[in-house]
From TrEMBL:
Pfam families cross-referenced by the UniProt entry: Tail_completion_gp17 (PF11367)
Lineage: superkingdom: Bacteria
InterPro entries cross-referenced by the UniProt entry: Gp17-like, Viral_Tail_Comp_sf
Protein name per UniProt: DUF3168 domain-containing protein
Amino acid sequence: MNSAMHTLQAAAVAALTEHPVLANALTGVYDGPPPRAAFPYVAINDGIASDWSTKTDAGREVRLALTVWDDGESATRLSNLMSHVEDAVLAIPRDLPDWRIASLVFVRSMVVRDPAGPWAGLIEYRVRLLAI
């Protein structure tokens, strides 16, 4: 059985790269910040997984965190991209290889900027999965 986190991250990458707006707007979707990537891009952060099993089924609760990176003059483009990322994540199919998403809930988002660097928009979800 594939790990829930690996399966969920693969589904998130597929959802982001297949999204009609993001496919044209992003330069890539990466596992962590890539060296020398062109902006804008999405980095899937290392997730946290915990047990969410029932008496009869294995389960995991995964924190899926995505960071949208952009070097625009303002946060306008970043905010627009973050909205599309949210749409893509919410459209992830509930039936995945070896796992079924029982719930996918938005937890938080925030936008920060280093004065000498790019904008970073974090979006975090709590995803509960059951093994099938």
